[in-house]
């Protein structure tokens, strides 16, 4: 077996400790992959599916596999009670979360925000599985210290994506909803004075203030019309988001 010296490739792409260096490449078979330059080499990830390209138990991801098992358990038993994840299964889920973390950071640097919140949503699904179904108490809380950060990244991506779509009011609603989610998370764990201690909330507050300056003066009228249309067409998830946006716009103008 022969091995390839990676030094030429590393030399062509020097490591810069001052920034996160990411690029997209096209593989020899024509698929898109993402590369991240790290101190001792280059990380390469698949652009879709699981970042390492694995298909655990034949599924796209462990989250997909365990969601199927959870749904099957509920069909057979009429409840999710009794469904449990072992310590080893939770460990595997944590490893999967670390893979998605690297990729959503890469996508954030690339400013591909829809891909960011696709992957942050996957990470939060892992957090929820472990919190709600781990058999061992330590596995239920092992990921909770990272929840606020992932929510923040999810919210920032959704807000920037909304701005790209020309919806600053919706972007502001995402930010305010994210702040509420982070506060609720900390309060569940008994944290006090999170407004001044949470870096995640501080970052979202700053983003919210910036977005407030970009909300057009006629956004109240436009958003009211969009909300009425969403309700009439029974697009209730969109209606909830627009309702939040309307509330934020009203507070901004008054």
Brief sketch in words of this structure:
The protein has 254 residues and is mainly alpha-helical.
Q: What can you see in these coordinates?
A:
With 254 residues, the chain is mainly alpha-helical. It is 63% helix and 7% strand. Strands 1-2-3 form a three-stranded antiparallel sheet, with helices on one face.
Unreliable parts? none
Which percent band covers the strand fraction? Answer: 5-15%
Helical proportion, percent range: 55-70%
What is the 3D form? globular
Radius of gyration over alpha carbons?
Answer: 21 Å
The largest sheet is: 3 strands, antiparallel
Structural class: mainly alpha
How are the strands of the largest sheet arranged?
1-2-3
Helix-strand string: HEEEHHHHHHHHHH
State the separation between the terminal residues, measured CA to CA.
71 Å
How many H/I helical runs?
Answer: 11
SSE diagram, text form:
Layout: H1 7-12, E1 21-26, E2 32-38, E3 41-46, H2 62-77, H3 87-109, H4 113-133, H5 137-141, H6 147-164, H7 168-188, H8 194-197, H9 199-212, H10 219-232, H11 236-253
Antiparallel strand pairs: 1-2, 2-3
Helix pairs in contact: 3-4, 4-6, 6-7, 6-9, 7-9, 7-11, 10-11
Labels describing this entry:
254 residues, 7% strand, mainly alpha, globular
């Amino acid at each position: 077996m022969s091995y390839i010296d990676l030094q030429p490739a590393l030399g062509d792409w020097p490591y810069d400790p001052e920034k996160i260096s990411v690029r997209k490449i096209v593989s020899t078979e024509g698929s898109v992959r993402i590369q991240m330059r790290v101190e001792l080499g280059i990380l390469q990830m698949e652009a879709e599916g699981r970042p390492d390209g694995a298909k655990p138990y034949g599924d796209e991801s462990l989250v997909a596999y365990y969601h199927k098992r959870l749904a099957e358990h509920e069909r057979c038993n009429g409840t999710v009670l009794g469904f449990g994840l072992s310590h080893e299964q939770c460990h595997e889920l944590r490893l999967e979360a670390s893979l998605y973390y690297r990729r959503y950071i890469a996508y954030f640097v690339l400013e591909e925000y829809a891909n960011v919140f696709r992957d942050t949503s996957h990470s939060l699904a892992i957090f929820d599985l472990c919190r709600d179904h781990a058999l061992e108490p330590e596995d239920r809380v092992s990921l909770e210290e990272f929840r606020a950060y992932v929510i923040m990244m999810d919210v920032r991506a959704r807000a920037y994506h909304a701005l790209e779509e020309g919806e600053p009011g919706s972007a502001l609603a995402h930010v305010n909803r994210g702040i509420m989610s982070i506060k609720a998370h900390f309060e569940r764990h008994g944290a006090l004075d999170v407004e001044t201690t949470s870096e995640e909330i501080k970052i979202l507050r700053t983003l919210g203030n910036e977005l407030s300056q970009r909300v057009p003066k006629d956004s109240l009228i436009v958003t009211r019309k969009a909300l009425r249309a969403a309700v009439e067409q029974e697009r209730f998830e969109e209606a909830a988001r627009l309702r939040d946006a309307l509330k934020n716009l009203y507070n901004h103008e008054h």
